[in-house]
Amino acid sequence: MSTTISIPESGLNFGPYEETDLFYVEKSSIYKSLQKSSTKTVEFILRIRDDEILFVEAKSSFPNPENPESLDKFKHSVEEIYNKFAHSINLFFALVLKRVDDRNNEVPDFFKSAKYSAVKIKLLLVLNGFQMEWLSGIQDALYIHKKLIRLRKIWSLEVAVINHEQVKEYGLLK
């Protein structure tokens, strides 16, 4: 019988998920060993179906893109999200391709054997407590971020910004 894991993050309780569908990268020994090198990561990577995985980053605060006084903070936060997504993609595929040793066997077998040419990969930013109308400015900023455009095109990634209500529609809260 498989174990389930719940992930408390940013005021939300994600899951529970089957451990065979989840790489809790933020708590992994692999990530912890890389933190000194300023490597950033998403909270977790989740198999939704055999043909779809999510890289999930959750936040309970984010600067308002409409507020001119917080524009610098907003740009910094967008760059921080980009770094988390980019570092997570790099680390994940370095593990899957065995360029980094998964000595504690923390990456579930599905991720190691998936046919990635047929797998949709979505980068998901979950903003707890945000109203729907606040999300589009953040989504737009991520969508036009030059480095994230390159990452999206190279890896054929989708990016979505959702709030605490929409996260239920994704089936991330049970």
What this model shows, in words?
The protein is of the alpha/beta class. Helices cover 37% and strands 25% of the residues. It is built from 6 helices and 7 strands. The chain has a 5-stranded mixed beta sheet. The chain has a two-stranded antiparallel sheet with strand order 1-2. A hairpin with a 2-residue loop joins β4 and β5 (52-59). It is globular, with a radius of gyration of 16 Å. The chain starts with a strand and ends in a 5-residue tail after the last helix. The model has no long low-confidence stretch (mean pLDDT 92).
List the helices and strands and how they pair.
Blueprint: E1 4-9, E2 12-18, E3 22-23, H1 29-34, E4 44-49, E5 52-59, H2 71-96, H3 109-113, E6 120-127, H4 132-144, H5 146-155, E7 157-163, H6 166-169
Brief rundown of the structure:
The chain has 174 residues and is α/β, with parallel strands linked by helices. Helix content is 37%, strand content 25%.
Total domain units: 1
Oligomer: single chain
Low-confidence stretches: none
Question: On the 0-100 scale, what is the average pLDDT?
Answer: 92
C-alpha Rg, in Å?
16 Å
Secondary-structure content class: alpha/beta
The count of DSSP E runs of length 2 or more, i.e. the number of strands, is: 7
The ordered string of helix (H) and strand (E) elements is EEEHEEHHEHHEH
